[in-house]
């Protein structure tokens, strides 16, 4: 897979934008600086917008309220959370009224209740499933109860498997890190509802009626891999978890269609990356790969240099994306 060119703004090519939240629209309590204006411009161009998040810690209503406070207008129906996807998975396997042990916050409990299931916090023989979601207030008691229920044979569902979550302090443990506690103690791996699995993005596509969505995120292993799984275009932004080195070293199923500094990239054109023999060009930058070692020359927007570097390294099987030459090339680009 290679980066795509776009001679028109992406908001004219794609009819809907499925936007991740953490690290894309906001980080903790604050908006990513470009995000409110970018969402407004995409909507003004006619693109529909849905916010698709692996975070199961808050309700769609609370997330919509937070977005509106940050200058990003949103209604609860614009927000698709992994809590909803996880509750739906349990509801597909067990009848209404079943007891479900919730290892997570109020938002996950509410999603379970909306599915007609009965959320509980203590294991008993009537518990048919354990559903686990992100909580900044995760307790040992909940992890213990979830472990006991899963060992007993309860159906185990995780809202998502992100190892980390961005915060105002930096990267902190995400739901996937707490999932490992129960998985390691029981030997049972959960069924995962969130990205990169299909349910979340499918719900976003359904709500927006999209035929050609753009999936935007800051993580390769969830947002971009999820886009690949759907055969949809994915745009990686550099405002959250993924670094330029991560993009360079991405396996094929996690390579984005577009690279952008931030969410404003969905309102811009994207330059072509041209390969000619051992040389790869993008705007004012040229990357030459010799013996698997990339060398960067040129000037201009260093994101164009990263575009050329990624395509050159992805295309050359002998290139080491994390080796000294690649690191030197990134240093030449200012990373």
Automatic annotation (TrEMBL):
Keywords: Hydrolase. This is HAD-superfamily hydrolase, subfamily IIA. It comes from the Bacteria. One of its GO terms (molecular function) is phosphatase activity. Residues 282-335 form the GCN5-related N-acetyltransferase-like domain. GO terms for cellular component: cytoplasm. The keyword S-adenosyl-L-methionine does not apply. InterPro entries: GNAT-like, HAD-like_sf, HAD-SF_hydro_IIA, HAD_sf. SUPFAM superfamilies: HAD-like (SSF56784).
